[in-house]
Design goal:
globular; single chain; 13 strands; alpha+beta
């Protein structure tokens, strides 16, 4: 883990609102200063250029890291989901949010744990490491040892996070609107409602413990995956306890031999396909910090199940039809299924048919290569970015996919991003074909789908 500083989490509504106000003021001041500089230089800058300056992006990243909670979580989501299609300046700064969060100072930590476990909470442990081993958007993690010798990891939620979710989401959306990054033509109301719902679920540690137990059972037949053991006697709505599992950051795999990287990513891509087509439940947060690597055992550790959720049958069917069309190489069928699943809007297809056609030529050629897919070869992304930006300039045809599809796609995109980081080579086409064939056999045989008890 990288070094982090401690800062008291602003937990009251007024304190958090004031922080957003200061951020908005700082952004506005940055826009004015940059605009004046460019006008003096004889330029006619656009608002988007003024907002997306390194200084303003740094202001956003620093303030969201300080606020933590839903505000920082949304910043992480944007950085993961934007991939190659966000402006590079914004991508670089937002990427800092994926592994950067200030932790609580000791006094605030003690107050939180005393409220959850009682004032004598230290008597529950033979040792409790005061400095966190990880600090993220919603909570920080401490290593501890129980009197019986068990090593445990204790995730402690930042105070006020659960209570501030709705206001934080609304405030971030307002900032995006004011900055011009979020077009007024797009109705993000349903997306904001769903973002709030998922964040409330992620803040419910009792629910996450149940999902952790469920995943431990689901991966029991997958020898390359490890899930911590839930410790219910120490868990509350704001504290999550689990067995401590050794591991190093998954990004360290980048230094491993090619065959090790390939095997690890084959395992993770296989996991995504099982989640989507076999289990009907998916952990939809692909943040790299949610995976650890065990060099000695060559196993991957799965962490953080707060974003695990049921995948509706209609969403699964949409992906099945779209992927089947892609494997067939039928561009007309791919376009039809992409519209039906909500990936593309009908207006965009009608007005930009030639662009869509060119993009599909690239995608289908890559998907249907006979050799293993080389995630390290990103040459085709430049072509897709160029075409995609041309379509994006036509704001009248912007389209928001169904919310459930967005959550699934976030996991898929994040997994591909990790594969790219590791420069893995995976037989992705064969894996997809096998998953679709197995799914079809299961449906034909009337096999019962696995649906989680909680969603």
């Amino acid at each position: 883990m990288s070094d982090r500083t401690s800062s008291r989490v602003p937990s009251g509504r007024l304190a958090r609102f004031g922080a957003f106000g200061r951020l908005a003021g700082g952004l506005a001041g940055g826009v004015v200063a940059e605009g004046a500089r460019r006008i003096a230089a004889g330029e006619r800058p656009r608002m988007g250029d003024l907002v997306l300056t390194p200084a303003n992006a740094t202001r956003v990243a620093d303030q969201l890291s300080h606020l933590r909670g839903a505000a920082m979580k949304l910043g992480q989501m944007i950085s993961m989901d934007g991939g190659d299609f966000l402006p590079p300046e914004l991508t670089a700064i937002l990427a800092r949010l994926r592994d950067r969060a200030n932790h609580m100072p000791p006094r605030q930590l003690d107050q939180v744990l005393a409220a959850e476990w009682g004032k004598g909470w230290r008597a529950r442990f033979a040792h409790f490491q005061a400095h966190p081993i990880a600090a993220a958007s919603i909570g920080q993690v401490h290593r501890a040892r129980l009197p019986d010798g068990r090593e445990v990891a204790i995730k402690v939620q930042y105070p006020g996070v659960a209570e501030s979710i709705d206001a934080d989401v609304d405030n971030v959306a307002t900032l995006l609107r004011v900055s011009g990054l979020l077009p007024r033509e797009i109705d993000v109301g349903p997306l904001l409602v769903e973002a709030k719902r998922q964040l409330h679920e992620e803040a419910d540690y009792a629910r996450e413990g149940a999902m952790m137990t469920r995943y431990a059972a689901l991966v029991a037949d997958l020898p390359d995956l490890v899930v911590p053991t839930f410790v219910p006697e120490l868990t509350t709505g704001r504290v999550l306890a689990m067995s401590f599992v050794e591991g190093v950051p998954v990004e360290t795999l980048a230094e491993a031999p090619q065959e090790v990287r390939d095997r690890a990513m084959t395992t993770l891509i296989g996991l995504v396909l099982r989640e989507l087509f076999d289990w009907g439940v998916m952990q939809t947060d692909p943040n790299f910090a949610n995976y650890r690597w065990q060099p000695e055992t060559q196993k991957l550790v799965l962490l953080d199940f707060g974003a695990a959720r049921a995948v509706p049958a209609a969403t699964v069917d949409g992906y099945r039809r779209l992927l089947a069309a892609g494997l067939s190489g039928d561009k007309a069928a791919v376009t039809r299924e992409a519209v039906a699943a909500g990936f593309l809007g009908e207006a965009a297809v009608l007005r930009h048919a030639a662009t869509v056609d060119r993009m599909l030529d690239v995608i289908l050629a890559e998907l249907n290569r006979p050799e293993r897919f080389d995630f390290g070869d990103r040459a085709f992304i430049g072509t897709l970015r160029e075409q995609g930006m041309a379509m994006a300039a036509d704001r009248a045809t912007w389209h928001v996919p169904p919310v459930e599809t967005l959550f699934v796609q976030r996991k898929i995109s994040g997994t591909a991003l990790l594969a790219t980081r590791l420069k893995a080579k995976v037989a992705a086409r064969d894996m997809i074909a096998d998953a679709l064939a197995d799914h079809g056999k299961a449906e034909h045989a009337g096999a019962a789908r696995v649906v989680p008890a909680t969603s």
